[in-house]
Write a structure and sequence with these properties.
single chain; alpha+beta; 11 helices; binds adenosine-5'-diphosphate; binds magnesium ion
């Protein structure tokens, strides 16, 4: 998009209509852009706030082409999409950011590791596996990961000993050393078409042990200046190596011995960046739109310490969602509640999130934990 492009007519296409697409669309609408989304689900979260919904799957090449043809620039809220037609359209000059070649590389977790390693970025020791013999030769305990299709801990398996071999992933996979993790950190990096990068603060991700889903995020992370500096350097170096345009989340491990390793990269807005909506000068969702439409990147300044907690579907319930405790939870000052508008709940499904601001992390954490106890997503069916 040139400087003289008339942004009042800008048409944005988003592949994926979940919560990330929804919030992206809301930010695009704030700037007056026309938004079309592609998603298979009728009335999905993003469809509720977009101008047009192309209803179809992420592997439907005709509909992917329609989306790209009908819009000025196309971006993604998820990486599990068919890139064949997108690469063709990209090669023919259509604006698709990040490029489908980058999406394709990220889809293969093993190739992603290799790119990072080839660029001298510290990552856990890893190895391709084809047979059980390869697995045994690496030794136990070990982390096994599917090369394709994993998310929210699905596609990641810990094998403590040979006795766990029956739990192994049978699709194409690789293995990694089991890292002795002190904290899981994340950094959101924005990179625009000119190659300028801007970094958000380093945050801590806390996980729900039962399902390996990111449960809460603490911004800024409770780490030393030195660890913060290294985390940012590693994250920017990773995104520069990838040469992507858009928003990227770099997940990092801080080990018990004080090393920092890159775990993986998401080529889109990320759960670890939801706090930026209330706590930063420019949210990750506005930032991706600025990046892919060739507008200047906004300030990533942290305006207040924040804690974000995911609102997951309560265990034991499914069906039409019912928000329990909303009146009491919203009494908590500086709490912002987001409900994605999914019409069906099930255990641990990401249904919404809450961000709590406070002058210090301890107070924000205290308020967030109180809110978490009060607000529950139950469903019309007991299961
Ligand atoms: N090498 C490792 N050592 C220890 N824990 C790991 C390792 N790799 C992944 N994990 C744990 O599993 C989680 C999910 O793994 P990840 O590779 O990030 O996959 P996903 O795509 O599901 O997010 C991580 O956030 C971390 O808690
Ligand atoms: Mg991950």
């Amino acid at each position: 998009m040139d400087k003289d492009f008339n942004y009042s007519n800008l048409k944005l296409g988003i592949i994926g209509g979940g919560q990330l697409g929804k919030i992206m669309s809301q930010k695009a609408k704030k700037m007056g852009f026309h938004v079309t989304i592609l998603d298979p689900t009728f009335n999905c979260p993003a469809a509720q706030v977009s101008d047009k919904h192309i209803m179809g799957g992420f592997h439907d090449s005709a509909l992917l082409e329609q989306l790209v043809q009908e819009t000025d620039v196309t971006t993604f809220e998820l990486e599990h999409v068919d890139t064949t037609i997108l690469k063709e359209l990209f090669d023919n000059g259509h604006r698709i950011h990040p490029s489908p070649y980058i999406i394709e590389l990220i889809q293969n977790k093993y190739k992603q590791k290799k790119l990072l390693a080839d660029n001298g970025i510290a990552i856990p020791a890893y190895k391709d596996v084809k047979t059980d013999e390869d697995l045994k030769a690496f030794g136990f305990p070990v982390i096994q990961k599917a090369k394709f299709g994993g998310y929210d801990g699905k596609g990641v398996q810990m094998l403590k000993s040979e006795a766990d071999l029956d739990k192994r992933i049978t699709q194409e996979s690789f293995i990694e050393e089991l890292v002795d993790i002190d904290k899981e950190l994340a950094v959101i990096v924005a990179r625009n078409i000119e190659g300028e990068t801007k970094c958000y603060p380093v945050v801590e991700m806390l996980f729900d042990e039962r399902v390996n889903i990111c449960d809460s995020v603490i911004a800024p992370a409770r780490i030393s200046k030195e660890i913060e500096k290294t985390s940012i350097e590693l994250s920017v170096k990773s995104i520069k190596a990838l040469k992507g345009v858009g928003i990227f989340a770099v997940e990092l491990f801080l080990t018990k011995s004080g090393d920092i390793l890159v775990n993986e990269i998401a080529p889109r807005p990320h759960n670890s960046g939801h706090y930026t909506i209330e706590a930063c000068a420019t949210s990750q969702f506005e930032q991706i739109i600025r990046a892919v439409t060739n507008l200047p990147l906004g300030s990533t300044k942290l305006l207040s310490p924040a804690v974000m907690i995911n609102v997951l579907g309560e265990e034991g319930y499914a069906g039409e969602p019912f928000i329990e405790g909303i009146h009491d939870a919203l009494e908590i000052p500086e709490l912002s509640f987001h409900f994605y508008g999914k019409t069906y709940t099930k255990p641990f499904r990401k249904m919404g999130h809450m961000t709590v601001l406070a002058d210090d992390i301890d107070t924000a954490l205290e308020k967030a934990m109180k809110a978490k106890k009060i607000l529950k997503i139950k469903g019309s069916k007991k299961i």
